[in-house]
Write a structure and sequence with these properties.
single chain; about 240 residues; alpha/beta; six-stranded parallel beta sheet; 8 helices; 6 strands; about 45% helix; globular
């Protein structure tokens, strides 16, 4: 990915915070706390979540997505569209609750999430998807509760950690982007997936998707406008 584009995909996070009136310090606080919590040989008594194990999980994820077409499933996706879009050898990355659109069709290789995905995210955690867990200022209690719960699964999911700050945080990275959907695309690009190998379905800036966790429709539509802006930056020529 072009360095200028990558820098813009990160810097636009400041524009989003300013638009919504959110606190950068809150984002830093949540991300730094997650980094500290997970900087252990067995976070939540889970050795597979150690910094070393997470590096292994990320390397494995890069190999999988880098060797195939990647279908990114957004919150407006319908199951029949997922089924129709699957190509032989394609892997699937779902945006949070959009994992629900994949159920009974394909297990997502990864789910990119700030943990709003409710029961669909829970099933993805139980069924073996790698979770790309995002920390921001409004989800500290949520990530604490989810990680504690998932640590008690017979097979806790593999995990990668992201944040949306300018800080350098051990064991975490900032791929750029803002919503789970466009952040999924930014993750793929930062992992070396070529833009032409990324296929997006279920990304609609004008209506709330059935898999969205947002409860305020007007606010959600504002967020979707930012999603569309970021996707156009990340994937030039996207319709």
């Amino acid at each position: 990915m072009n360095d200028d584009v990558r820098a813009r995909l990160v810097s636009i996070q400041h524009d989003v915070r300013a638009f919504f009136g959110w606190s950068y310090e809150d984002d830093v606080r949540s991300a730094a706390q997650l980094a500290r919590t997970m900087d252990d040989d067995a976070p939540f008594s889970t050795p597979s979540w150690s910094p070393r194990a997470r590096r292994v999980s990320l390397d494995a994820l890069k190999r999988i997505v880098g060797s195939s077409v990647v279908l990114v499933v957004g919150a407006a996706a319908e199951p029949q569209a997922v089924r129709a879009a699957l190509e032989e050898g394609a892997c699937v990355v779902a945006a949070d609750g959009a994992a629900g659109a994949c159920e009974g069709i394909v297990q997502p290789t990864a789910v990119v999430t700030d943990l709003d995905g409710a029961e669909h995210l829970e099933r993805a955690a139980q069924n073996g998807s790698t979770l790309v867990v995002h920390a921001h200022g409004d989800n500290m209690e949520r990530w604490q509760a989810c990680l504690a719960r998932w640590s008690r699964l017979p097979h806790p999911p593999a995990m990668v950690l992201t944040h949306q700050t300018d800080e350098t945080l051990p064991g975490m990275h900032n791929p750029g982007g803002f919503t789970d959907g466009d952040r999924a695309v930014c993750c793929l690009l930062s992992w070396g997936v070529r833009p032409e190998r990324i296929r997006c379905i279920g990304f609609d800036a004008h209506r709330l998707g059935r898999w969205s966790g947002e409860t305020d429709p007007a606010r959600k539509l504002e967020k979707l406008g930012w999603m569309d802006t970021i996707l156009r930056m990340a994937l030039p020529g996207r319709e």
